[in-house]
Amino acid sequence: MKTGFRLLSVSARAALALGALAVAIAPIAPLASAQTLPDPAPEDGLAGGALNLPANPTIFGKADPHVRRATAIVNGEIITGTDVDQRLALIVSANGGKVAPEEMDRLRLQVLRNLIDETLQIQEAKAANSDVDEEEVTQTFNRVAQQNFGQNPAALEKYLTSIGSSSGSLKRQIKGELAWQRLLRRNVQPFINISDGEVREVMARMSAAKGTEEYRIGEIYLSATQETKPQVLANAQKILEQLKGGGSFVAYARQYSQSSSASVGGDLGWIRLAQLPPELATPAAQMAPGQLVGPIELAGGYSLLYLIDKRQVLTADPRDAILSLKQISIAFPKGTAEKDAAGKASEFAKVVKDIKGCGAADTAAVALGATVVANDQIRVRDLPTALQDTILKLSVGETTPPFGSIEDGVRVLMLCGRDDPKVESGPSFDAIQSQMEDERVNKRAQTYLRDLRRDAVIEYN
């Protein structure tokens, strides 16, 4: 949809929130089979072999691994250290395990705050008879397993256990999100009214803005007072470092961001710069897709911005063109020197340039000892950013300059066809109305949750 607004109903937001949850698990590596090492042979006088354990140890204190110590009690409901550890493991996994030790303590506190909010949301839904039954939670859990693993739920449960989490922790998060969205649909959404005149005004503004640029931006917002500014700024800088080191923006936004977009991984949707505060609009205008900037100081805190994409309002984007491509590639033998690889790549480029269109590509590839792979349904925007502009300048039968590496070999893309996108008329009246309703529901939701926190009885360990 071509629009400067996020066109999400409350139910759609719930789906996206759970999609983001799935994304948080998506970076998981393929499941590995467990390996059991044989126990070392005991040494004389030692019951524990190489561990050098005494035969008759004396236990000091009352350490019972089966007793879970409470971290917080929320309106009588216990959140244990185990609950925090298992939820934390999900976040660490989503970031490929790349979480610095000094970051872990701060992340642990944030997870605890999230669990407190989650508990309040589940409790409020139950009190309002909007609770989510276990069957619905299980169905969602099973979909996550299928979408992210292509396997049965048992495979997901096995993986969660292997990283120090559990199916129970993930199911509780699913239950919290479903319960909160159901509660909002019942207690908030029916009281939100968007007039026809408001919708027509938005549509008129969009028509007037045709051809102007709009941006799809991700944001992590951290609120701060005058007293907490130094600490919040330091936290924002640490998050920025983690993201630049390969951390998942979606996962960090869900855990840290204090704006209503946190549930969808910080995604603000398609917006125009005029909709942003000046402090954010200025750096956003200078960003390229994939770029991350911040921390940016605002009146009430700090923001980190991530430019997901940009396009022109109600204008066909060339990057939505569907391409038919052939990839022609050669590999270098293991141990090939850089000088030799450069020479072969140069010769490869000369021969490929003389290929007369896609019809002759397969025959020419055989003579080169190259491999050809075809793809007839790929969008320009799905290609690496560095290749998009190059591809858009090609005519049918032309190739890109060679690219690759010694390890991966060298390749070119040959354009065999291109279907340009059609100009869309923009979102419908109902879609805009739904979007405006969604925005107002989220504002009310923030107030709702703030009231729940204010009225809660919370005991910390």
Protein architecture, described:
Residues 1-34 form the signal peptide. Pfam families: Rotamase, SurA_N. InterPro entries: OMP_Chaperone_SurA, PPIase_dom_sf, PPIase_PpiC, SurA_N, Trigger_fact/SurA_dom_sf. The chain is of the alpha+beta class and 461 residues long. It folds into three domains: 1-11 and 68-206 and 424-461, Porin chaperone SurA, peptide-binding domain (Triger factor/SurA peptide-binding fold, Orthogonal Bundle); 213-312, Chitinase A, domain 3, CATH 3.10.50.40; 318-419, Roll (Chitinase A, domain 3), CATH 3.10.50. It is 45% helix and 17% strand. It has 14 helices and eleven strands. The strands form three sheets. It has a four-stranded antiparallel beta sheet with strand order 4-3-6-5.
Q: In what order do the strands lie side by side in the largest sheet?
A: 4-3-6-5
Query: How much strand content do the residues show?
Result: 15-25%
Q: What order do the helices and strands follow? A: HEEHHHHHHEHHEHEEEHHEHEEHE
What distance separates the N and C termini?
49 Å
Helix/strand structural class: alpha+beta
CATH domain class of the largest domain = Mainly Alpha
Full CATH superfamily name of the largest domain: Porin chaperone SurA, peptide-binding domain
Radius of gyration: 27 Å
Main beta-sheet annotation:
4 strands, antiparallel
Based on Cα principal axes, name the global outline. globular
How large is the count of helical segments?
Answer: 14
CATH-scheme architecture of the largest domain: Orthogonal Bundle
Average of pLDDT: 78
Could you say what the CATH topology of the largest domain is called?
Answer: Triger factor/SurA peptide-binding fold
Count of distinct structural domains: 3
Stretches where pLDDT falls below 50 for ≥5 residues?
Answer: 1-49, 59-68
Percent of residues in helices: 40-55%
Please give the number of β-strands. Answer: 11
InterPro entries: OMP_Chaperone_SurA, PPIase_dom_sf, PPIase_PpiC, SurA_N, Trigger_fact/SurA_dom_sf
Organism: Novosphingobium sediminis
Protein name: Parvulin-like PPIase
GO molecular function, one term: peptidyl-prolyl cis-trans isomerase activity
